[in-house]
Amino acid sequence: MLGSRIRSKRLEKNLSLREVADKAGLTASFLSQVERDLAEPSITSLRRIAEALGVPIFYFLLNSAEESPVVRKGSRKVLRLPESHLVYELLCPDLNRKIEMVMGRLAPGASTCDEPLTHAGEECLVVIQGTMDVDLGSTVHRLEEGDSIYYFCSVPHKLTNAGSADLVFIMAITPPTF
Question: At what angle do helices 28-35 and 2-12 cross, to 10 degrees?
Fold first, then answer.
């Protein structure tokens, strides 16, 4: 399913495997395996593929049917990659808005990415449960339950669960890039 959505978007944009792979910093053979569902991309690789195709990551999980403005707890679109300790749930019905709301869950000691990332936009997040370290540029900010942080995404950033229990947080992103 994920692979076919990536392939469809690539073909819709009339891009070759090599062009998308080069833009994403991946090999064409790996991208081909992903498109055929023979390989699972990491969250970092999926973000790069999405950026190369000019869509938010959640684009690959959304169906094109008309959406209700209400998103029920059991009906959220979920992004969970194999061998990842990170789960994202889309809290808004679609990505056709100016803001994206996501709930993130991160296992103890896990991070959202290997190296701090940059992308267009702004983010604001609040810790619902647990302890989070936010690498923001050259500074690490420790957040506890109820704490929030706002930052420009052009600053390299990375989120890490600094506690011994699951970390749960809500994140608003504008424009929708996730």
Answer: 120
| Strand order across the beta sheet in which 167-174 lies | 77-80, 86-90, 100-106, 167-174, 122-129, 148-152
Residue 88 lies in a domain: yes
The residue-averaged pLDDT of 137-151 equals 97
Q: pLDDT tens across 47-90, in order?
A: 899 999 988 887 876 655 556 788 899 888 888 766 778 888 98
Q: Which residues pair with 133 in a beta bridge?
A: 142, 160
- The answer to the question of residue 42 being in a domain is yes
CATH number at residue 160: 2.60.120.10
Q: 25 with 87, same domain?
A: no
Cis check: omega of the bond before 175, within 30 degrees of 0: yes
Enumerate residues 6+ apart whose C-beta is below 8 A from 64: none
The reported pLDDT for the residue numbered 67 is: 62
Whether residues 88 and 163 fall in one domain? yes
Query: In the structure, what pLDDT confidence band is assigned to residue 171 with cuts at 50, 70 and 90?
Result: very high
Full-model pTM: 0.72
The range of the structural domain enclosing residue 114 comes to 73-174
- CA gap 172, 178 in Å, rounded: 10
